[in-house]
Amino acid sequence: MAIERTLSIIKPDATRRNLTGKINDKFETAGLSIIATRRLQLTKAQAEAFYAVHSHRPFFGDLVSFMISGPVVAQVLEGENAIMQNRDIMGATDPKKADAGTIRADFAESIEANSVHGSDSPEAAAQEISFFFAGIDITA
Ligand code: RTP
Ligand code: MG
């Protein structure tokens, strides 16, 4: 299996509850390495640009408001099959449907305040990593 990189965001509901360490423990225990990390407060324009793919969805305005409601932690995770492995570790979008032991089952508050984002394809991973990080910021 290929070594991949994926973009993870620990969302404001999780930073607010001091869950960064517990979430990172799940990544590292599963064998994903955190090779870049950055805590920041997104602006409205940045959140709209990051989630532009959802701009026509009914929840877009609420999603942007939520994503700027507090700091986020953007990270690059690296490991075997990292993109899909991270999606497995995160669990389903709706925490009520997420498998036991996943981040969203353990920590998410709702379908919107669901603690983490993860890239969903190699193309999205490349684009989302470059949204937050320059090459010099990433140390494998
Ligand atoms: P993400 O992009 O954040 O990793 O999450 P995902 O792939 O599991 O879910 P996606 O369909 O891409 O939705 C992006 C984020 O929008 C919020 N959402 N709210 N109110 C709603 O019905 C609703 N549906 C989605 C969630 O924060 C979701 O993660
Ligand atoms: Mg998504």
TrEMBL record:
Transferase as UniProt keyword: yes
EC number: 2.7.4.6
Keywords for this protein: ATP-binding, Cytoplasm, Kinase, Magnesium, Metal-binding, Nucleotide metabolism, Nucleotide-binding, Phosphoprotein, Transferase
Cofactor: Mg(2+)
Binding site residues for ATP: K11, F59, R87, T93, R104, N114
Catalytic reactions on record: a ribonucleoside 5'-diphosphate + ATP = a ribonucleoside 5'-triphosphate + ADP; a 2'-deoxyribonucleoside 5'-diphosphate + ATP = a 2'-deoxyribonucleoside 5'-triphosphate + ADP
Catalytic residues identified in the record: H117
Pfam family, one: NDK
Claim: Transferase is one of the keywords in the record: yes
UniProt xrefs under PROSITE patterns: NDPK, NDPK_LIKE
SUPFAM superfamilies: Nucleoside diphosphate kinase, NDK
InterPro entries membership: NDK-like_dom, NDK-like_dom_sf, Nucleoside_diP_kinase, Nucleoside_diP_kinase_AS
UniProt subcellular location: Cytoplasm
GO molecular function, one term: kinase activity
Domain Nucleoside diphosphate kinase-like span(s) in chain numbering: 3-140
UniProt similarity note: Belongs to the NDK family.
Functional description taken from the UniProt entry: Major role in the synthesis of nucleoside triphosphates other than ATP. The ATP gamma phosphate is transferred to the NDP beta phosphate via a ping-pong mechanism, using a phosphorylated active-site intermediate.
Quaternary structure annotation from Swiss-Prot or TrEMBL: Homotetramer.
The protein's name: Nucleoside diphosphate kinase
Organism per entry: Acidocella aquatica
Species lineage: Bacteria, Pseudomonadati, Pseudomonadota, Alphaproteobacteria, Acetobacterales
